[in-house]
């Protein structure tokens, strides 16, 4: 890697619209609805960190990358913050410091001391020709993180002398942020009188021992995007629906391969959490969290499902559930809980004590894995000619133990699995199915 040593400031990383919810001076603003939960449950086991990274054609000059970061950070004032504690709620306070590029870690998505004074809710890491940004989920989702990464990469290449005539949707340092980018879009789209979604039971979980805290294995499958889209079209489903079905089948195969006694003890519905970008349904420019999820699945208590049966079930479920009508129920449930008079006057330390209980009741215990599809990622010319790939790594989970993040860039599809266990059974079964279906898959690991 070019240009000198990394800076090692300890403070950077140990290592009338009420829904806008910011002051006129922009010195502080409230957490959005999703952020509140993530701030409660974050720990070494549940870091709530996810990663986006870009691989460039040339080695990174760290000094230039640092300058690019300093140039763009004021374009993202809602990320230039520090998490602070009030009497009843946490809030984001303007951070007077400057984020610093740091060296990459052995494993991605490590715990961040998010509540420590001076800590930003994101990191920028560099290694050889790779620029990575890791965000704490309390500040944004994949959409916001991707916009930030594209802006950082664009400004970095601009400083190296690359001339870009049309920046398209890439944020530039000299642009003024919009007030709508601060928006708590959950509260804006909250419909008070809607019923919440029906409760669901606990799901099947992989019966494997967790690795030590911090160990996070990554396996990526790389294949032609055209091949994947053609296969989905042949089956009359979307790419996401096809990959969800492959993942569910892998989990079902693991369940039914267990010894009979263990199989009976663990026999529960198999569900996947599939995040949905709500900007598809509700007009919003928010750069904060604005995604919820649906949970397609099968119930193996009814017997073994063929792949065709799984795919059919996923197809019909997604057609019904991925709509503003049903997503609105989740928004109503989540925001209603936050606005409840008793909750509002409960001291923060009590909220944090019960935060994990709420998370377990409505969170990861209800599904068996995670698969998130960011979709097609692109950069304007000539930026795209200097970037080999952009990829997405999911957050760690000690409950589901595996997760999957998908995106395409250029002519390739990237499927990144992260796991907190030694066993590679899910990935092997998943990619073997793709190979069986005719995919040309290249596998890489960390």
Write up what this structure looks like:
With 446 residues, this protein is of the alpha+beta class. The chain has two domains: 171 residues, Chloramphenicol Acetyltransferase; 184 residues, Nonribosomal peptide synthetase, condensation domain (Chloramphenicol Acetyltransferase), CATH 3.30.559.30. Helices cover 31% and strands 21% of the residues. The protein contains twelve helices and 16 strands. The strands form three sheets. Strands 8, 9, 10, 11, 12, 14, 15 and 16 form an eight-stranded mixed beta sheet that branches. A five-stranded mixed beta sheet has the order 5-6-7-2-13, with helices on one face. Strands 1-4-3 form a three-stranded antiparallel beta sheet, with no helix packed on it. Strand 6 and strand 7 form a beta hairpin. Helix 1 packs across helix 11, helix 2 packs across helix 3 and helix 6 crosses helix 12. The protein is globular. The two termini are 19 Å apart. 42% of the residues are buried.
């Amino acid at each position: 890697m070019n240009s000198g040593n990394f800076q090692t400031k300890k403070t950077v990383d140990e290592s009338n619209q009420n829904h806008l919810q910011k002051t006129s001076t922009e010195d502080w603003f409230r957490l959005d609805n999703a952020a509140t939960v993530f701030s409660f449950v974050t720990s070494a086991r549940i870091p709530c960190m996810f990663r986006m990274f870009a691989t460039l054609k040339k080695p990174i000059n760290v000094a230039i990358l640092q300058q690019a970061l300093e140039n763009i950070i004021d374009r993202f004032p809602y990320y230039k913050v520090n998490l602070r504690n009030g009497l009843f709620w946490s809030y984001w306070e303007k951070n007077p410091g400057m984020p610093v590029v740091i060296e990459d870690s052995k494993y991605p998505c490590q715990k961040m001391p998010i509540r420590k004074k001076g800590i930003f809710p994101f990191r920028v890491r560099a290694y050889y020709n790779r620029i990575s940004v890791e965000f704490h989920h309390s500040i944004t989702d994949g959409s916001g993180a991707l916009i930030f990464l594209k802006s950082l990469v664009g400004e970095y290449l601009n400083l190296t002398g690359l001339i870009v005539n049309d920046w398209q949707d890439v944020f530039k340092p000299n642009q003024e942020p919009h007030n709508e980018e601060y928006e708590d879009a959950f509260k804006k789209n909250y419909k008070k009188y809607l019923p919440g979604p029906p409760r669901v039971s606990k799901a099947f979980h992989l019966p494997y021992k967790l690795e030590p805290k911090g160990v996070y294995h990554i396996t990526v499958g790389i294949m032609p995007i055209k091949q994947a889209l053609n296969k989905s079209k042949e089956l009359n489903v979307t790419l996401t629906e096809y990959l969800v079905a492959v993942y569910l089948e892998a989990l079902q195969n693991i369940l039914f391969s267990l010894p009979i006694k263990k199989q009976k003890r663990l026999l529960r519905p198999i569900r996947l959490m599939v995040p949905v970008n709500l900007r598809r349904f509700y007009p919003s420019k928010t750069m904060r969290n604005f995604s919820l999820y649906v949970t397609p699945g099968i119930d193996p208590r009814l017997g073994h499902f063929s792949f065709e049966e799984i795919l059919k079930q996923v197809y019909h479920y997604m057609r019904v559930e991925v709509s503003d009508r049903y997503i609105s129920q989740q928004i109503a449930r989540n925001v209603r809980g936050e606005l409840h008079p008793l909750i509002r006057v409960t001291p923060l330390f009590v909220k944090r004590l019960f935060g994990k209980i709420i998370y377990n009741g409505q969170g990861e215990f209800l599904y068996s894995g995670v698969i998130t599809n960011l979709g097609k990622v692109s950069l304007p010319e000539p930026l795209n000619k200097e970037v080999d790939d952009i990829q997405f790594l999911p957050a760690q989970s000690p409950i589901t133990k595996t997760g999957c993040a998908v995106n395409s860039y250029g002519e390739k599809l990237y499927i990144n699995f992260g796991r907190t266990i030694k066993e590679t059974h899910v990935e092997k079964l998943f990619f073997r199915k793709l190979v069986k279906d005719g995919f040309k898959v290249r596998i890489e690991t960390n």
